[in-house]
Write a structure and sequence with these properties.
35% of the residues lie in helices and 15% in strands. It has 142 residues and is of the alpha/beta class.
Length: 142
């Protein structure tokens, strides 16, 4: 009786079908990715070609230690307590009703504090704007 050898199976794997599947998945994800829209807020900023020549009547400064300074007209900034700040601002608005108040804050002042002051001014019907000119704290302590 003759014994037959068993046939050995080859362990090769065909990658042709795998590349087809990867190619189809690539096309699928490329097509579906165009349907994803970002969920960002659209902000329309006002545009202007001119700068205003109106100077603020009152200026409020906040240094990095959260100390307040205020000045009216051409006066030098004077230290003022945060409790007395809005009484001072209301008095200056009564003297010059059409003027606005500029708020200068050191770059290290937390945004929350700046927003809090702007919010209080808005509730008191004061025209307050956030100034963009950098202010050095050591200039206020003369």
């Amino acid at each position: 009786m003759s014994l037959r050898k068993q046939h050995e199976m080859t362990t090769a794997f065909s990658l042709a079908s795998m590349s087809d599947v990867i190619f189809l998945l690539l096309i699928f994800f490329m097509v579906t990715s165009t349907f994803v829209f970002p969920t960002a807020l659209e902000v329309n900023l006002p545009q202007s070609g001119q700068q205003t020549a109106i100077k603020p009547g009152t200026r409020v400064y906040i240094d990095k230690e959260l100390n307040f300074f205020a000045s009216y007209g051409n006066q030098e900034p004077q230290p003022i307590e945060s409790d007395a700040l809005f009484n001072f601002l209301l008095l200056t608005q009564e003297q010059e009703p059409g003027s606005f108040i500029a708020l200068y804050a050191d770059e290290e002042v937390p945004y929350g504090k700046v927003v809090e002051i702007l919010d209080k001014a808005a509730k008191a019907n004061l025209k307050m704007v956030l100034a963009t000119k950098p202010v050095r704290s050591d200039n206020l302590r003369k």
